[in-house]
């Protein structure tokens, strides 16, 4: 017994140097093959076989029971991993609990590894844990986050078009995740429509949906002007309803990070954040982010090397100027109308990069600071208010946010389809599309583009189980040109992607 | 006149007590006061409550050892060295041994390291014996009480049992010469041979600057439910499992390795400290010994420690109410760990986090260089001060001997 334990103890703490000086040096003499040794070997082998069958090592247990002379305590419990018939506690132990000389209840020695019969997560507990996590995070936010968070008033100009659902869903989901109170003012060009209303109703937020007279123009120049007027219209609503909070401009094609909403809580009157400008070349090969040249002659408006618009600070974190996006390399290639295959350029300073305290547009004569212009001066029809800076008499009072403009908290990107591109209303295909010919071998984009008169490709709608009679002589119409709304169409990938600006 | 004075005194008392109440109320918003079984003692100042005399031992007991291997300053047993340095320049130190309440012997017994950095305890008994022989022959204070007013720092695995294997350590027991002295050790387990009554349990050394360097803003939401990094099976020394950690760590792995709430693995990520700050619960299971630096790390980073070690005695157990701060799980209940943790009421979890956020709590676990008020050094002194005044019975009559100087294995009696 002692020999065996000594052998086993030598295996521990693999550094054999340390074991060499252990007082219990084993003097194993394995060379002598006496009958006793052979007997022990055979017995040991037999016990190993039995252990294999049973699934746990019981040899130590047996030896302990038979030859227990050692004062040091050891207990053996059954290795339960292989036993599936064990009760839920996972242990059927021979309660060999020998108390050590010190009277300890906790026993030294080999213990079983307790495994419950179904060692997998329980969904109820996972849900409980998630609610605990959420509560802890709310507590964290209330302790370390913004004290007295103010309502966020998001102003979004929009209009019904192909890409509206894409953009508006993105903004909607961002706003739904904002942990503060939110009022969403959606200004729609061309009047309030049910399409937009149904879309924003899904958000569950408090929304103010107002229509604005005037169709969204096709030329980008005019667009920008109309959007500014729409935003002013929304500010008028803020003024009339005396909404209290922080006004931010969430254009529907922008991407906002949630940090932005935490950061704007710090604004006192007017704040500016850095906006990443992702001007891209629609459809052409060089779709990379432009690297802008630095023009060191400009002092007031620095043209930065990175595609960012925002406040510029000096080393003591005070506002000294503005970073703008250098549009010079692109002026020849800039897009003029929607869907044009060219770079869509931002204006010098986008509205989205500014946040205002809503009290600035209120009717109060007393509360407002001196550097804000009167509403009546600004709100004159026909004048183009390029950015919220026009509301101020003195632009140096703007507070730079996001560690003085070093953090880019939102991104500007204009992706739009052509003005005449069609799409199913509310993106519900009704009546379902026709199936003309089931495809046996679908040709993939490697295949050369096919002319309308040759082979067909079919989209199978899952809900229509019956096949309409096939119509040979395909009536493949380019969806973008079709006047018919939902007639039987066979949509060919290649044909519809010929114009990337199209739907 | 007298009545007026009494009225004034009563009014002042009421005012003072109400102010303290207001203080308490304000504090409970974000943190809570910590008071253990000994009362509200975490913030006590030991200066003026005790005097410590530091023996001047030859440098072969301390400085030379450290010079031979400077790794001793950064491993988890470094408390013995830093305590020595702290006492040398502390206001509680006295140069007059006649007025001293406690005597400290600076001998670094845990500084004989292997190539891997693990301390070898084989020479430690001899070293300690030799040091005690020195102080008993050069100064009369050891013989006066046979060490009852002396304290020693023994931060190794099983304290003054001087072995890393538990069975061997139990066999050896505490070094006989240290039976009457107060032992300041990291090991603590109830009803264990290697923990004397009256010992002071301290946290293992964790580098404070390193932890401070990895702090992240407290607004970062805690999104990990349970976090653990470390071994589950010690394949080198216990390949089958069942010996290491009494099978508890292996049980954690087998039961929860596919549970999304449990972020457990054996990796060594560089973001270990940052991840702890993003976790709500941090597991602190036993290993070969029940204590581990994980407890210190969990407390510093505000992660509720889940202690899986039966009968463990945690650091400064009389000053810190660990039951209120951490979660204790019996080793046999490990398969139900997820049920246990998810069924803790949310108010308790928030309360534990508030207690952990108390800066006194974090300070008490650290050994900063240089020492700061209310840190672990001061908690040790507080513990020593609470044991004063010494019982008259510890003072022996001249010539009276209680300790057996020849007890113990023969190897220990060799000179060092």
From TrEMBL, chain A:
Any GO MF annotation of the entry: galactosylgalactosylxylosylprotein 3-beta-glucuronosyltransferase activity
Topology class, membrane: Single-pass type II membrane protein
EC number(s) on file: 2.4.-.-
Broad enzyme group: transferase
Sequence segments annotated as region (Disordered): 288-310, 440-503
Site (Interaction with galactose moiety of substrate glycoprotein): 288
Record's subcellular location: Golgi apparatus membrane
Protein name from the UniProt record: Glycosyltransferases
TrEMBL record, chain B:
Keyword Metal-binding appears in the UniProt entry: no
Keyword match Glycosyltransferase: yes
Highest taxon in the source lineage: Eukaryota
This protein's UniProt keywords: Glycosyltransferase, Golgi apparatus, Signal, Signal-anchor, Transferase, Transmembrane
Subcellular location: Golgi apparatus membrane
Annotated GO CC locations: Golgi membrane
GO biological process, one term: glucuronoxylan biosynthetic process
Mode of membrane association: Single-pass type II membrane protein
Predominant location category: Golgi
Protein family per UniProt: Belongs to the glycosyltransferase 47 family.
Signal sequence, renumbered to the chain: 1-22
Ranges of residues in domain Exostosin GT47: 49-344
GO MF annotations, alphabetized: 1,4-beta-D-xylan synthase activity; glucuronoxylan glucuronosyltransferase activity
InterPro entries: Exostosin, Exostosin_GT47
This protein's name: Beta-1,4-xylosyltransferase IRX10L
Organism name: Sesamum alatum
Pfam families: Exostosin_GT47
């Amino acid at each position: 017994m002692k020999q065996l334990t000594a052998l086993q103890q030598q295996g521990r703490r693999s550094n054999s140097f340390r074991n060499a000086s252990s007082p219990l040096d084993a003097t194993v003499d394995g060379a002598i093959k006496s009958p006793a040794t052979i007997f022990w070997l055979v017995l040991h082998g037999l016990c190993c076989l039995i252990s294999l069958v049973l699934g746990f090592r019981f040899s130590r247990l047996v030896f302990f029971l038979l030859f227990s002379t050692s004062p040091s305590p050891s207990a053996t419990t059954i290795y339960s991993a292989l036993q599936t018939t064990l009760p839920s506690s996972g242990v059927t132990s021979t309660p060999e609990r020998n108390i050590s000389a010190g009277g300890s209840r906790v026993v030294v020695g080999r213990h079983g590894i307790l495994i419950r019969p179904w060692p997998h997560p329980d969904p109820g507990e996972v849900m409980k844990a998630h609610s605990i996590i959420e509560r802890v995070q709310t507590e964290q936010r209330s302790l370390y986050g913004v004290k007295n968070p103010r309502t966020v008033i998001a102003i979004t100009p929009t209009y019904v078009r192909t890409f509206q659902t894409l953009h508006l869903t993105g903004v909607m989901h961002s706003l739904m995740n904002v942990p503060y109170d939110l009022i969403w003012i959606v200004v729609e060009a061309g009047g309030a429509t049910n399409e937009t209303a149904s879309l924003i109703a899904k958000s569950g937020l408090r929304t103010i949906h107002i229509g604005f007279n005037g169709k969204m123009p096709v030329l980008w120049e005019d667009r920008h002007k109309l959007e500014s007027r729409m935003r002013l219209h929304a500010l008028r609503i803020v003024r009339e309803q005396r909404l209290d909070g922080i006004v931010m401009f969430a254009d529907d094609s922008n991407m906002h990070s949630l940090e932005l909403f935490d950061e704007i809580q710090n604004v006192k009157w007017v704040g500016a954040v850095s906006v990443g400008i992702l001007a891209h070349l629609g459809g052409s090969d060089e779709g990379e982010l432009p690297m802008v040249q630095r023009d060191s002659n400009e002092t007031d408006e620095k043209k930065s090397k990175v595609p960012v618009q925002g406040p510029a600070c000096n080393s003591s974190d005070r506002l000294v100027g503005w970073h703008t996006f250098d549009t010079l390399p692109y002026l020849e290639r800039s897009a003029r109308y929607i869907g044009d295959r060219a770079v869509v350029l931002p204006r010098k300073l986008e509205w989205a990069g500014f946040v205002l305290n809503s009290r600035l547009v209120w009717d109060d004569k007393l509360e407002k600071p001196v550097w804000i212009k009167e509403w009546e001066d600004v709100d004159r029809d026909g004048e183009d208010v390029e950015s919220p800076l026009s509301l101020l008499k003195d632009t140096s009072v703007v507070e730079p946010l996001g560690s003085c403009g070093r953090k880019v908290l939102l991104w500007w990107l204009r992706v739009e389809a052509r003005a005449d591109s069609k799409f199913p209303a509310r993106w519900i295909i009704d009546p379902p599309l026709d199936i003309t010919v089931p495809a046996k071998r679908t040709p993939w984009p490697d295949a050369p583009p096919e002319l309308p008169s040759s082979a067909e490709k079919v989209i199978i709608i899952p809900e229509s189980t019956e096949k309409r009679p096939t119509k040979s002589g395909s009536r493949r119409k380019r969806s973008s040109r079709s006047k018919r709304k939902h007639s039987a169409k066979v949509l060919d990938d290649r044909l519809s992607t010929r114009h990337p600006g199209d739907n | 006149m007298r009545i007026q004075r009494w009225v004034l005194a009563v009014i002042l008392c009421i005012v003072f007590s109400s102010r303290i109440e207001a203080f308490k109320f304000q504090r409970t918003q974000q943190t809570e006061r910590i008071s253990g079984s000994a009362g509200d003692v975490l913030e006590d100042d030991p200066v003026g409550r005790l005097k410590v005399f530091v023996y001047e031992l030859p440098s072969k007991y301390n400085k030379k050892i450290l010079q031979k291997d400077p790794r001793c300053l950064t491993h988890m047993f470094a408390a013995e060295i830093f305590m020595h340095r702290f006492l040398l320049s502390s206001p509680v130190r006295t140069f007059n041994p006649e007025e001293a309440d406690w005597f400290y012997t600076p001998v670094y017994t845990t500084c004989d390291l292997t190539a891997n950095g693990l301390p070898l305890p084989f020479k430690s008994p001899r070293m300690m014996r030799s040091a005690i022989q020195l102080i008993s022959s050069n100064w009369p204070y050891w013989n006066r009480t046979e060490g009852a007013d002396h304290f020693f720092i023994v931060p190794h695995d099983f304290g003054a049992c001087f072995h890393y294997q538990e069975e061997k350590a139990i066999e050896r027991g505490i070094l006989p010469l240290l039976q009457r002295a107060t032992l300041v050790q990291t090991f603590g387990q109830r009803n264990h041979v290697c923990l004397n009554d009256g010992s002071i349990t301290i946290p293992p050394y964790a580098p404070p600057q390193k932890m401070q360097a990895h702090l992240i803003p407290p607004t970062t939401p805690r999104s990990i439910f349970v976090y653990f990094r470390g071994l589950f099976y010690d394949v080198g020394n216990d390949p089958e499992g069942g010996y290491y950690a009494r099978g508890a760590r292996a049980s954690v792995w087998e039961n929860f390795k596919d549970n999304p709430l449990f972020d457990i693995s054996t990796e060594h990520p560089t973001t270990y400290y940052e991840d702890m700050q993003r976790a709500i619960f941090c597991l602190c299971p036993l290993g070969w010994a029940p204590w581990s630096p994980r407890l210190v790390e969990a407390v510093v980073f505000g992660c509720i420690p889940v202690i899986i070690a039966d009968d463990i005695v945690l650091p400064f157990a009389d000053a810190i109410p660990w039951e209120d701060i951490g979660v204790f799980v019996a080793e046999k209940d490990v398969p139900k760990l997820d049920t246990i943790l998810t069924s803790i009421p949310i108010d308790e979890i928030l309360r534990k986090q508030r207690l952990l956020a108390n800066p006194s709590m974090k300070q008490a676990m650290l050994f900063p260089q240089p020492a700061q008020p209310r840190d672990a050094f001061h908690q040790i002194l507080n513990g020593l001060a609470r044991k004063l005044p010494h019982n008259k019975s510890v003072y022996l009559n001249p010539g009276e001997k209680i300790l057996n100087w020849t007890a113990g294995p023969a190897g220990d009696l060799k000179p060092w």
